[in-house]
Amino acid sequence: MASDDMSGAQAPVVSVRDLVKHYPIERGIIFRKRVGTVHAVDGVTFDLMPGQTLAIVGESGCGKSTVGRLLVGLEQPTSGSVTVAGTDLSTLNARELLATRRDLQIILQDPYTSLDPRMTVGAIIGEPFEIHPEAIPAGKDAKGAVRDLMARVGLNPEFINRYPHQFSGGQRQRIGIARALALNPHVIIADEPVSALDVSIQAQVMNLLMDLRDELGLSYVFISHDLAVVRQIADTIAVMYLGQIVEYGDAEQIYEHPQHPYTAALLSAVPVADPVVQRSRTRIPLSGDLPSPADPPSGCRFRTRCFQAQAKCAEVMPELVASGDKHVVACHFPLEAVTSV
Fold first, then answer.
1. For the chain, does the N or the C end have fewer beta carbons within 10 angstroms?
2. Coil, helix or strand for 172?
3. How far is CA 210 from CA 36, 44, 77, 90, in A?
């Protein structure tokens, strides 16, 4: 795929090739019968470079969170590969996979359900040290390491014995971030980390994530449906629709010159603070609903909602092809080629 050309001379920290995840649809209580397949992820390929933030964006149900779970091994791929620091995760045994997971951690979406209400904050953040005691910094015990992590993410270390219900939503998400940092990972998968927070708290958490990235040299896979949030943090953007990447490239290029109709429609829905600019913008509405991943359309999966679909779109699935430097798009009729749009 074209992303191979975008990796440059530097080796990627995570390399995903032709990643597929299908879920069987079964019926019956005693005798289970397969009656269909959910195409959650279908042939996703990308590279994550050191220090880079790759944002995966799209509507709910497009498969972006499934990609995140596949990256950290919470789901096993149907086919394809996830390579971390040059090692294909599918080739590792349980012990080797446990060691590799130190480099790959996840921040979950909901700060209210992702923390065990029966555990104290100290126990939640310190749990990774029970599995990987070698990760405790020299000269520290586990409790001291937890206090340092709490301070790093803006929590009062004196609250170490409190329970999750005693914290606000933003503070709970900081607890999740501290837990993800415990093992000094190189890569963090942030699965919609601010979508459940108030707007003012979103900005604080986003600033924290960016500061940690710069301070610790982290690489992020940032999963979100909010393109306004993504613009603040992303270097590269992958736009997903119904299990496939439809546009991939440098963040500024995507925002300034979207070429896939779906990307343009998403960007047209992002509000602008300036009311004069907002009134002058043209909204691109999408007709219909997202098709079922159990029965995706033939050819281009976006064609049933596309404002410029033609007969070819129903017959031939478009491939990701280069469209300028570090920019690929899967569309038979990209926007630059359509002068009327």
1. C
2. helix
3. 42, 26, 30, 31
> What is the spatial distance between Cα 53 and Cα 51, in angstroms, rounded to a whole number?
7
Classify 26 as helix, strand or coil.
strand
Question: Could you tell me which residues come within 8 angstroms of residue 137 by beta carbon, excluding any fewer than 6 positions away?
Answer: 145, 148
- Going from the C-alpha of 334 to that of each of 12, 183, 247, 257, 306, the distances in angstroms are 28, 43, 10, 11, 12
Q: What angle do CA 323, 293, 287 make, to 5 degrees?
A: 70
CB-based burial label for 179 (10 Å; 0-12, 13-18, 19+): buried
Query: Among residues 324, 320, 326, 335, which one has the least CA distance to residue 249?
Result: 326
Structure tokens at 175: 């607890």
Residue type, 258: P
Alpha helical stretches, state H, 182-259: 199-216, 227-233, 251-256
Query: pLDDT digits over 121-165, tens only?
Result: 999 999 999 999 999 999 899 999 999 999 999 999 999 999 999
Which residues, listed in sequence order, are joined to residue 249 by a DSSP beta bridge?
237, 327
- What contacts 188, CB < 8 A, 6 or more positions away? 105, 106, 107, 180, 181, 218, 219, 220, 221
Of the candidates 138, 141, 135, the one whose C-alpha atom is nearest the C-alpha of residue 122 is: 141
Contact (CB, 8 A) for 72 and 101: yes
* Helix ranges restricted to H, 217-293: 227-233, 251-256, 261-268, 275-280
Q: Are 160 and 146 in contact (CB under 8 A)?
A: yes
